[in-house]
Automatic annotation (TrEMBL):
Protein name per the record: Response regulator
Organism listed in the record: Dyadobacter flavalbus
Domain of life, per lineage: Bacteria
GO BP annotations listed: phosphorelay signal transduction system
InterPro entries given in the database record: CheY-like_superfamily (IPR011006), Sig_transdc_resp-reg_receiver (IPR001789), TCS_response_regulator (IPR052893)
Amino acid sequence: MSNVKPLRIFLADDDDDDTFLFQEALEQIPLNTELTIAGNGMELMEILNDGEVEPDLIFLDMNMPVKNGLECLQEVRTSQKFRNVPIVILSTSVAQYLWESAYKGGANLYIQKPTSFTDLVDILKKCLLKDPGSKWISDMEQFLIKN
């Protein structure tokens, strides 16, 4: 067993199938991770404000009940404690107004939800194995927006 601290990933998504696939894809990546799942943005904010675990990376589904991805993004970005945590927005839509709103709101990356498990694994690898010193938006954005 490694003494390396796990990468703490938070996922807010109301779709059980998408959540299951995310968990399965994460297990395909040779990295020590710890996943915390919330069923919507409000639940995620409750977990964050509880303060027991601090995320290293947050994935937000765009369309969730109670509090959607953009609303949650805005709340996280105004939080002193979490405003610098990288946030990836997941959406079935690539409508320009949505990804522009996400980037203006402080998202590090906007990803169209992939249609295959293999693509999901590839996308997660790109996000999780990224060089910490590199920018989030660049060639990765072009790759992900096109998929």
